[in-house]
User: Fold this.
Amino acid sequence: MTLIFLGSGQFAVPALEMLVRSPHSPALVVTRPDRPAGRGRNIVPTPVRARARELGLREEAPASVNDPAFLARLAEMTPDLVVVADYGEILRRPFLAVPRIGVFNLHGSLLPRHRGAAPVPAAILAGDAETGVSLFRIGEGLDSGPVVDRSASPILPLETAGELEGRLAALAADLLERNLPGFAAGTFREEPQDDRLATRAPKLAPGAGELDWSLAASAVARLVRALSPRPGAHSVLRKSGGTPERMRILLAREVPSGEPAAAAPPGAVTRVDKHGFRVAAGGGEVEVLKIQPPGRSVLTASEFLRGYGLQTGDRFENRKAEGENR
Assistant:
């Protein structure tokens, strides 16, 4: 079975590594073009391209896989199956028609729930108890093709999007491995999705990380986890007599309702001790567990307190409020 693999991000790497160990190592790995990254804006390959080179695989990074010249080269390989994971480009009808068996995608949710580019953050934001991965045939609709197989997994109480995506990437590799024999033998089955159950998980908007402390504590904590480690939720810390500083908050939890809570406006620091600190929300309190000051590494709450002298009554605000208070 001639297999082509399309992937770009880290989520796709475990599946690629599994395929190399299987009887169906990719004849070609296709990834997105190299792009600037990091503070130095150096040109770097995608995680998939870097790993493909380490594994000695044939790889290409066309500007678009929908380009007729690339499609002609791909068709000459007479591929049987194309597997896609975290690739980053919409695949048009001419591309979908090339492989004999079809084009199948590994998606980080239990479809039809959370169709779209950001299923992992969406599951955390929604407060889902579980999520998983789906292997489905790509059609012309958004993640709406028939599903071959799924694997479910619980979402852990303090799990961030980065941690969850890492677990789901390994689960996706196992799911694909489980279904390779069925693809090769032509015995796989497909089940149509129930569109009535579909929810959307679009790419996060640029301002999604701005914390709104007037929300319930549970919603604030979920947003922090859903955006960790990238791009990170953020809020401006205004200390008494100090200069406002924009902090990235990487981990937080809702304080259980049974614990004593101080009456304070949203965003106010309500409790500080040697272990950490709490911030008032629109309903309840949030305990900040990991935070990153400007230009510094990520700190635990106790590490942060040793260097920043936080006090009860200091405030976390969004940038709009910061501008209004100046």
In short: The chain is about 25% helix and 25% strand.
